[in-house]
Amino acid sequence: MENKVLGLHHITAIAGDAQRNYDFYTQTLGLRLVKKTVNFDDPQTYHFYFGDRIGTPGTLITFFPWPRVRQGIPGAGMATEIGYSVPEGSLEFWKDRFERLQVWHDGLETHLGERSLPFQDPDGLGLRLIEAADSDTRTAWETAEIKQEHAMKGFHTVTLTLNNIKATARILEEVFGYELLEKEENMYRYRTHAVEQAAFVDLLESPGAPRGLNAGGTNHHVAFRVKDEKVLMAFREKILARGLYITEKINRDYFYSLYFREPGGVLFEIATDNPGFMVDEEVDQLGSTLQLPSQYEGIRAEIEEALPTLHIN
Is pLDDT above 80 for 1? Predict the structure, then answer.
């Protein structure tokens, strides 16, 4: 596993109302709020992390909820759909649940050889539940209404929409170690064999697609997983060697990361497994209190007053 990308780490998106975002991902979808913190660059904005019991990389979707954000437009140069793995035979449960809770969804379909159910969150973010062809052995977070036989286990894939996939595919293949697995019309599926789950990236080639508008209901960036800081910095050298700009190492408290924009326009992050989400909360208390980066602790009162009130269930 040394010096390899270990699939997806997290995906970060933009939401509107914070309470609505929290309610949908914890109550409707049954994920755990693993961490409640703030945007490092805008401390009056929450940063929510939703995932499994401990926030395992490959299960984490994160949000910046801006109450008055304009509506975004998915398009070329963006991640346009997030695919979650669910147990075989569970899609009927989810379809019934979405109908009862008035969640926008499409019909059941077969997509790249796998049964799936496309749907949207309240901000219009594109998601898909997928009965993965390969057995997913991950243990999901359970709620009173959503048990293991139906629960979302974590990422299966992410779809990037591109005018031309060639340059992006080269990054996936030559830098990250992915390989082309299959093609269905203008959709190309890539996978890494370094991990079993959260291992796929789908490239949708759409030459005439307009560029997307990154705002509410769209994805901000896609983060890929590496073991530790040593591997992280080795990838930094690989990206620099290809003539692309990449940031210095950034401490995000729960992981270390680098950011670069791949040639197709999608913002990529590379993030470490270490140190994880238990550095400031015990496992049973994850997500229960507001955690602040150290530089903001001195103005905690002002930040708490400015943030929207959030009712945790």
Answer: no
